Amino acid sequence: MMLESLSMILIALGTVFFIAGTVGLLRFPDIYCRLHALTKADGLGLALIALGVALLADSMGEVFRIILIWFFVAVASATCGHLIARYERRSGEGPSYD
Amino acid sequence: MQETASDRSDAAAPDRRGTNAPVPPHTPDPPMPSRWRLFTIKALVLGAIWAVLTDFRADAWVFGLPAVLAGAGLVFLMPAAPAWRLSPQGALVFALWFSVQSVRGAVDVSRRAFSPRMPLRPGFRRYPIALPSGAPRVMFLNTITLLPGTLAAEQAGDAVMVHMLDTRADLDKDLGALERRIAALFALSLEAETSP
User: Fold this and answer.
1) Domain boundaries, chain B
2) Which residue is closest to A43 within chain B, CA to CA?
3) Residue B48's closest CA among A74, A64, A72, A62?
4) How much is the ipTM here?
5) Between the CA atoms of B192, B30, A82 and A13, what dihedral angle is there, to the nearest 10 degrees?
6) Tens-place pLDDT, residues B43-59
7) How far is A27 from chain B (nearest CA, A)?
């Protein structure tokens, strides 16, 4: 019971960060600022949801799979953010703030 | 499919391309690990992950074995990277510090996103990297993005162009701290890198 409510709180909090990432994506002025919102806020949102779901998992195998999913998404999101920013810089289309 | 994979590992033993002539870099890089050793380690790690993912089902290896061998075989296509080792204590300290920092980063950017005034003063800063190339540098570039207000946008030689949400923040202090922590994680000393 305790565990379930803790899990619900974590999942709800994770959702708040996903919403924050989406609000940033919509409101921030340029592509680089939007990448900040997506890599950081969504990353924490996923970590919180993964933690909440892992608390309700039935077996250690499931917990391990959830950890793997979180780990690979975290690494991929930082790398993708870097690649998108680099492409934008090399194409010369993004703002240069001068 | 599996025959070609086992072919490769049989023909392997005499071939040793890992002992290439050393190119003298500015710092004494650690020796290049043998490709076949790397292949074995990667195959074992990938195999263990596959086993757990599939709940140790024997029939799942029909897909798992070719995928593991192909994945580990990528070490022969990639350029050789210098060897590295992790300090266990450094890894624990780093993981804790990094969790706190990534929560701070997410809270910071969420606050800016929800704030009606949306306080942003974005811009780029150049930061010279002191860490040696290879795994420590990749780690550095990936973690910059999760720190509050910074994003690794482009690597230019021995420097990284960092995008900042607020250019008034002290970039050198924050990234210097991150570099020192990654150096501790990989059991490196940064002083040797920066002094010459």
Assistant:
1) 2-12+29-76, 88-194
2) B106
3) A64
4) 0.90
5) -90
6) 999 999 899 888 888 99
7) 7
- Residues in CB range of B80: below 8 A, 6 or more apart: B18, B20, B32, B35
Helix (H, G, I), strand (E, B) or coil at B32: coil
Question: For chain A, what is the domain count?
Answer: 1
Query: In which domain, by residue range, is A60 found?
Result: 2-91
Which regions in chain A score pLDDT beneath 70? Answer: 98
pLDDT tens digits for A60-72? 888 988 998 998 8
Strand (E) or helix (H) holding A88: helix A60-91
- What's the pLDDT tens digit per position in B150-168? 999 999 889 999 999 999 9
Query: Inter-chain contact B142–A79, Cβ cutoff 8 Å?
Result: yes
Picking from A40, A58, A88, A91 by the largest number of B CB atoms within 10 A of its own CB, the best residue to mutate is: A40
> Could you count the other beta carbons within 10 Å of the beta carbon of residue B106?
26
Rounded-to-10 torsion of CA B134, B140, B141, B144: 180
Please give the Cα distance from B149 to B118 (Å, whole number).
13
Q: Which of A69, A82, A10, A21 is nearest to B160 (CA)?
A: A82
Per the CB < 8 A criterion, the answer to whether A76 and A62 are in contact is no
For residue A88, the chain B residues in CB contact (below 8 A) are 153
Q: Does residue A73 sit in helix, strand or coil?
A: helix
In a domain, A66, yes or no: yes
Q: Using an 8 Å Cβ cutoff, are B90 and B186 in contact?
A: yes
